[in-house]
Amino acid sequence: MSTSPPRSAAKERRSDTRERLEQEILEAAKRLFAVRGYGGVSLDHIARDVGTAKQNLLYYFSSKEALYRRVLHGVLDVWLSYMAAIAENADDPEMALRKYIAGKLRFSRDHPYDSRVYANEVIAGAPLFAQEIKDRVLPALQADIAVFNRWAEAGVCRPVDAAHLMVVLWASTQAYADFASQISLVLGKPELEQQDFAAAEALLVDMVLRTVLNKPV
Question: What's the CATH number where 20 sits?
Answer without folding.
Answer: 1.10.10.60
